[in-house]
């Protein structure tokens, strides 16, 4: 019987089960329910569970859709496997229209159109935390966690650009439910470019940044443990962060970073993947080019199958009721477009999302 299994063996077995299945196993017995709700088990399950490839995409009527993209058949297929809505049950079950999403560990940090609040949301468990935004708060938000305590924090930032030297930052600690002004030492001569294209990896947030003194583009990160910005990481080669529209950033399996770049005076784009990034980033970052393409309909987000060297992106058609179209691009520039039945409210985007049982603020 399951109850007779040694505790460590039971944990090793269950932590490899996908979170969506573990939800249904909670009612099996009190011991399993207690284990599944245990904070350390949730973290272990997120790290060890089989990584499926579901992706979230914004959708009309206040919904977020879960897609499954099958790349194993000769002709790729896309299936809508579920839909979830952001609802605040304390206010007569109002459905909120999601405007922006930042993803970290199966948690979504969302901004909405109707409210002067942000919300952190686990779609798998249904847990939410609504957070009021202070007056004069910066307009961009990112989610990360402290490596020491694994407690989640929200960074509010203005960003740098060539016309604006305002470097206002604030941080919200979910465990204490409090905002505080963040007095970080600005990194000299840096512009935080494309601040809305941030991504999360191992609890840190990454952006493109430009060193005005050295005239170099790289990656800047924010460490939520020390609550400070960290060194500029080099890109495979230099490009103009202001003029080059083809400059995107994405995580891979919460281990590596992916960048889409375009060399100046060329019409081809390149996908580069980093080496595995350690928590302390002590090892020098290196890059490997995995895809070189002449495809020209690059969206604001994308996913890459590293082994097959296939890129998957999504855009909204200007015809057919503005439905979402998933594009699959191979190394030889072969492109397949798969029409969906979805009609996104905005230009759709992908998130490399894995359902998790992570709880916050407990």
From TrEMBL:
Signal peptide: none
SUPFAM superfamilies documented for this protein: F-box domain, Galactose oxidase, central domain
Transmembrane segments annotated in the record for this chain: none
PROSITE patterns in the record: FBOX
Gene3D superfamilies associated with the record: 1.20.1280.50
UniProt domain F-box: residue ranges: 1-44
NCBIfam families: F_box_assoc_1
PANTHER family, A to Z: BNACNNG10540D PROTEIN, F-BOX PROTEIN CPR30-LIKE
Protein name from the UniProt record: F-box protein
Organism: Cardamine amara subsp. amara
């Amino acid at each position: 019987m399951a109850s007779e299994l040694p505790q460590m063996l039971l944990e090793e077995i269950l932590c490899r089960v996908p979170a969506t299945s573990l939800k249904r196993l909670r009612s099996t017995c009190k011991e399993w329910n207690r284990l599944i709700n245990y904070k350390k088990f949730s973290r272990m399950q997120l790290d060890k569970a089989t990584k499926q490839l579901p992706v979230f995409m914004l959708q009309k009527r206040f919904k977020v859709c879960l897609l499954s993209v099958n790349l194993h058949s000769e002709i790729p297929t896309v299936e809508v496997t579920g839909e979830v809505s952001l609802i605040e049950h304390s206010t007569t079950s109002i459905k909120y229209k999601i405007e922006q999403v930042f993803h970290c560990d199966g948690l979504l940090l969302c901004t909405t159109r109707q409210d002067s609040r942000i919300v952190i949301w686990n779609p798998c468990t249904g847990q939410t935390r609504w957070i009021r935004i202070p007056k004069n708060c910066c307009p961009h938000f990112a989610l990360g966690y402290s490596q020491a305590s694994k407690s989640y924090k929200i960074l509010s930032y203005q960003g740098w650009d060539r016309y604006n030297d305002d470097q206002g930052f604030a941080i919200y600690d979910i465990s204490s439910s409090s905002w505080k002004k963040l007095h970080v030492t600005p990194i000299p001569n840096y512009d935080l470019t494309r601040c809305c294209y941030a991504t999360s990896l191992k609890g840190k947030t990454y952006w493109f940044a430009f060193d005005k003194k050295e005239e170099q583009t790289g990656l800047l990160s924010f460490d939520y443990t020390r609550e400070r910005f960290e060194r500029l990481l080099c890109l495979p080669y230099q490009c103009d962060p202001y003029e080059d529209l083809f400059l995107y950033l994405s995580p891979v399996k919460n281990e590596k970073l992916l960048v889409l770049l375009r060399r100046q005076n060329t019409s081809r784009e390149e996908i580069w993947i980093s080496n595995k990034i350690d928590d302390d980033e002590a090892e020098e970052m290196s890059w490997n080019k995995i895809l070189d393409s002449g495809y020209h309909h690059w969206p604001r987000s994308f996913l890459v199958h590293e082994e097959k060297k296939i890129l998957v992106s999504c855009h909204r058609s200007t015809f057919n009721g503005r439905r979402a179209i998933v594009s699959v691009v191979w190394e030889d520039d072969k492109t397949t477009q798969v029409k969906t039945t979805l009609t996104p409210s905005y230009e759709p985007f992908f998130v490399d999302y894995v359902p998790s049982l992570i709880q916050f603020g407990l």
